[in-house]
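Subject: Interface between my chains keeps coming out wrong

I've been trying for a while to get a sensible model of this assembly. When I model each chain on its own everything looks fine, but I need the whole thing in one frame so I can look at the contacts. Pasting all components below, labels as-is. Any help appreciated, I'm running out of ideas.
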Amino acid sequence: MNDEYAGDSSQWAFGTGFEDPLAGVDTTVPPGVDPAELAAYCLMLGDDALVMAQRLSEWCSRAPDLEEDIALANMALDLLGQARLLLSRAAAADPGVVPALPEGSPVPAEDALAFFRDAERFRNVRLAEVENGDFAHVVVRLLLFSVARLALLERLRASPDQVLAAVAAKGVKEITYHRDWAGRWFLTLAQGTEESRRRLEAALDALWPYQAELVAPHTGFGVDPATLRDEVDVVLDQVLAVSGVERPDRPPLSGTGRDGAHTAALASLLAEMQVVARAHPSGRW
Amino acid sequence: MSAAERAAEVARQVRDPEMPMLTLADLGVLRDVEVRGGEEVVVSITPTYTGCPAMATMRDDLVHRLRAAGFDRVEVRIVLDPPWTSDWITERGRAALREAGLSAPGPAPRRTGPIPLTLGPARSAPACPRCGSAATRLTSEFGATACKALYRCTGCQEPFEHVKEI
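Reply #2:
Try treating it as a single job with all components included. I did that and got this:
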């Protein structure tokens, strides 16, 4: 940055100051909640949103038409917003989760978490990270993802952590639209042409082994996603029944991204997402 | 006019960067303006959508306008709870939206229990803000900003934007 302008924030559309998405929000961890467990839980949900947002962003200018391009970008933006709040919440609850950066680094905690962790420290489900495919692939991915995320966020509105509860309450409104979008496109592709149905079924078959991870048990603070299995199944079965598509007979993959066991796709996603921030660890953005 | 009233008056006039026909107050984003010790202004705003990229611009606009009005110390705080709802758009805001050719939101859905999946045609379609025809069709539930959906009027054939009910 040119020092000539450094003192005058009006030169910059967004100012030069750090934009804290939790500015002024009380981030005190409530009594009875373990800060490390709360942080781990927020990281998990934040990483899901961040990695999914990155994959959806890759669709920019590639969707079948302008409206769907805008829809995918909007959903990416919603998820990026959720990721920022959740990563910030994790860092405020337990600063120990934030990677150490050189002293004096201006990188805020949410950016340190997004840009300075390697793949094995990410806690997202692998469904979020697998490479993009065709349009049917993103429809199926979003359906599986948003059905589970909506069920979880609905429950988290009553979280004892008020920050997480507030993020969930906003997220519910957003993910409701994502789930409807994915459900409608699922139905449209199923009832479209032979080719659209073939692609839809191929995408469902390829992504189904990743579905179970969304509702895998989690112990410690927070709503256990495993308790949402029936609820999630009811919604998925509803979409499958209306679309006349069979539930795939594919076993779940072993391991889980929640433990840092990721596919090779995450490392290449992160390499692209993180390269600029890592090249300039003292940069101000 | 007291300092508190003056600060509130200045803050209320700041416009939304993406929908400049609306003030932040009319959009329901401006939640509170407080003056502490007669000189420090604390403004509370809430995002419409979590990822709303206009938040930083709103914050900067508030700070600049209040500084220009003589308030040197301005703090902008984020409020997340209760979450923004389109019901907070004022009557004046709704009139301004219509004037600008946008369709104002109806009442936000009030739900108890699990949120139903909507696979059929979406919620009741809004009337065309240009010709008033009720014959409108949803093009996409996502528009140029997070808070708008795209519709097309089958009466006058014109597309229009509708501020979503959330």
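Reply #3:
Confirming on my end. Residues 3-78 of chain B form a domain with the GMP Synthetase; Chain A, domain 3 fold (CATH 3.30.300.130).
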